[in-house]
Amino acid sequence: MAPLPHRPDAAPPARIGLDRAEAVVVERYAHLVRLAHLVLPPALGRHRRVLLAHGVVQRALPGLTTGRGQVPVPDGSTDPVGYAWVRGQVLSAALAFEHRPRLWPRRLPPPRALRPGLPAVWGLRFFPRAGGTEELALDRVLAEVSAPARAAFALDALEELGTEDVAALLAAAGVADPEAALKEAAGVRARTGEAAGVLLASQEFDPCQVQTRPTDLLSRRRKGRLVGVGLFAVAASCALAVSGPAPAPGPEVSEADGKGGVAPVAEARGGTPALNPALLRRTDAAQWADTARVDFTAWPPRGGRTEDTELLGRALRAWSSPEAAGVKLSRSRTTPAVPPAGPPRLLYAGDVAGAAVVLLHDGSRAARYAEPLNGSSPPSLEVARTDEADVTTAAALVVSRTESGVRFLLAPWVGEAKTRDLLRPGGDARKLRVDEDGVTEAVAGPPVAGASCERWPVVRLRSSPRIVEDHAFLVTDLGELTAAHLSYTPLPGSGAGARAPREATGETALAAWARVGCRLAGLERSGVRSVNTWDFAEQTLPEEAGRAVWGCTRVSTWQGPGHVLVHLRPEAGRAAVRLVGETGPTAACSRFGQHLVASTAWRAPSGRWYSLAAGSREVRALTVSGHEREQGRTAAVRTDGEPDPRVTGHLSGGDELTELEYR
Question: Which residue stretches belong to region Disordered (predicted)?
């Protein structure tokens, strides 16, 4: 989207004529609505935010209409001064929606959002079309910053204004500290880079191209009946008030909770929508096949108890306050323990392996509530991070973990599920039975840390061709609610693009994982999102001892920081895998840490000692401590005794790369 030309030294006029402003609005309507939508608080919700963005722009005109009853026809010309004035009005109005009086309850929308206005829609919900994973990530980042920062980011990325211009516009719009907003926006820009403008111009942030969904039709009918009953009750109360004194107070009255059950009035009307089962978000069953956002937001509610409001209410109360509900809470140390800010999405409710289970999702976390059907033990609640999940990391959740094994609830886009032993690459994969709700049969769990590692069960899933053609991938249970995704990056020159992880389903990938799979032990309950093994170099060992592969296994967490293990794998049958180093948190072996050098002491079958070293794709030469520089990506230097080598890599661009500090 091309920005309008502007003059940094020209301030917009205090006021322009109605005809001129109307022409600007008509000419640049979609762009102005996009700008307003970006600045408005995400907490308003997608539907209200879309409508308010249109309303903000439509109310930007000065004064009343002229009565000529004719909308100006855009002539393709540009009015920079008129546009600057209208843009200033839109910014000021959108920023005002984040202003709250000092004692205003935080659970309520800002006062300005409560004012009735046009456009208004009844019976339909509007929301922009879903974008990809990058747009989703940016949307979440923008939701975490202030409205002035969102405005500064939009003016920079969409309007391509300079820093001074942005600061002046923010000040004119009433922002108290434009410099702070610019600094906050710079942090967002640093995370998006040059793609910021392209991302903001995508359909994810376009409130003019929207999808529509009806409101809950059954709920609407029930509410209509309740309104009628309520009006009758008000009339009857007024009549009683006139005819005589009010009766003594009785027990608390209850009303229908919208799902066929009965809930206390305070909870049904309640100030905490997150606790009301009637307000749970429910995704259409077919949405996963018609959206670009293939993650937990595309999961429909499944299971035989999705209408059990008593069970759903207990699950919601447990997540809101585990201690008050007498529920045992488990989570990784990086998973926030705060209750959901609004009604979560219902993913599953049903009976599995002797327990009533409810799976919920609040946008960045998944929660599993389980209560034994026989009441033999107290209910439990497990919460796990799921932010920025995708087609693989949102493919399965653990719905049950018992002595007989682990049962997964599979994503609706999973077309096939098999299980195999990661440590036996030549073995066959066995097909898993999956019931009509997407729950698998029990799969054996991995060995616990410290136990003998003789097998490592993994699940091989295949995506439906409606999502992607011929896409299979591996996930494994690491003791948490989410399953960890396993991938593989092959050696340089093997036909793969530089630093491009592949699914760990091919022959080479399975052979590599069979040698390092037991290193997954000990990662239980540490918030693991995915694990990638990267083979970055291959070396011929001295004294004709065969070949060995240098690899780096990176454990990436949902929080972001990663943990790496660097290893040397001699040919199978010759020697065990040698762990060269282990460290974290680090960006090494990721797309943000693309270069690597490593070294180790190695003893040949003859008993002689060598210093071995290797570097990744861009390394052109190596210098092993105490020895001369050697060309190439691998080096082997004979030593008099057991060495303690340190290596420096020399990159193709001339930079030097030192070895990781292992700890």
Answer: 625-656
pLDDT for position 118 = 62
pLDDT tens column, 142-152: 888 899 999 99
E-strand ranges in 44-105 read none
Within 13 Å, how many C-alpha atoms sit on residue 621's CB side?
12
Please answer whether residues 644 and 610 qualify as being in contact, where contact means their C-beta atoms are separated by less than 8 angstroms.
no
Task: Tell me what percent of the chain is helix, strand and coil, each rounded to the nearest 5.
Answer: 30, 25, 45
- CA distance between the termini of the chain: 49
The Cα 309–Cα 583 span in angstroms is 47
Segment holding 31, helix H or strand E? helix 29-39
Q: Does residue 650 contact residue 619 with C-beta atoms inside 8 Å?
A: yes
Dist. CA 94–CA 176, nearest whole Å: 15
Cis status, amide bond into 109, omega within 30 of 0: no
For 317-362, write each residue's pLDDT tens digit: 999 988 888 888 998 878 888 888 889 999 999 999 999 999 999 9
- How far is residue 319's CA from residue 327's CA, in Å, rounded to a whole number? 9
Question: If you count DSSP H runs as helices and E runs as strands, how many of each does the chain have, helices first?
Answer: 13, 28
pTM for the full model? 0.63
Give the integer Cα–Cα distance in Å for 204 and 292. Answer: 10
List the beta bridge partners of residue 645.
none
For 539-593, how does the pLDDT look when each residue is reduced to its tens digit (9 = 90+)? Answer: 999 999 999 999 999 999 998 878 999 999 998 676 789 999 898 888 889 888 8
The ranges assigned to domains in the chain are: 18-213, 274-389, 405-594
Which regions of 299-395 does DSSP assign to beta strands (E)?
328-331, 345-352, 355-361, 365-372, 380-385
Task: Give strand pairing partners of 484.
Answer: 476
Count, residues in the chain? 663
Specify the pLDDT at position 467: 79
Express as a percent the part of the chain with pLDDT over 90. 42
pLDDT of residue 341: 83
- pLDDT on residue 62: 67
